[in-house]
Design a protein that fits this description.
The protein has 113 residues and is of the alpha+beta class. It has one domain: Cysteine protease Prp (Alpha-Beta Plaits, 2-Layer Sandwich). The protein has two helices and five strands; from the N terminus they run ββαββαβ. Strands 3-4-2-1-5 form a five-stranded mixed sheet, covered by helices on one side. Strand 3 and strand 4 form a beta hairpin. It is globular.
Length: 113
């Protein structure tokens, strides 16, 4: 099962003054490698977040990608936090839709404080 987590969001809907992290761990196992639509959807949204955070919000991100775990981490206040929040919330909407449609293959955990 893919586990997607996001941390660094407030209950009030803004990015906190610390590093925001979006991480993906595990494998969906919906289908064989190269044909797994759940992994493809999550990967597309993950890399969309990466590109949009840099190009739209001006974030300096730290990114790590491997076969079993990937993450994006950034300090939202070193960029345009409003634009970064729009990017993150949009990507989380997409990831939530994937998790809702494939709950046995994908789980999303959004940590808000």
């Amino acid at each position: 099962m893919l586990e997607i987590s996001a941390s660094g969001l407030s209950d009030q809907g803004f990015l906190l003054n610390e590093k925001f992290t979006l991480s993906v761990k595990g494998h969906a196992l919906y289908s064989v490698k190269g044909g797994d639509i759940v992994c493809a959807a999550v990967s597309t949204l993950f890399f969309t977040a990466q590109s949009a955070l840099v190009k739209i919000a001006g974030c300096r991100i730290e990114i790590m990608v491997s076969d079993s775990e990937s993450f994006i981490r950034f300090n939202p206040h070193e960029s345009d936090p409003e634009k970064a929040l729009v990017v993150i919330e949009t990507v989380l909407v997409g990831l939530s839709r994937v998790a809702d449609n494939y709950p046995e293959y994908c789980k999303i955990i959004i940590e808000r404080r």
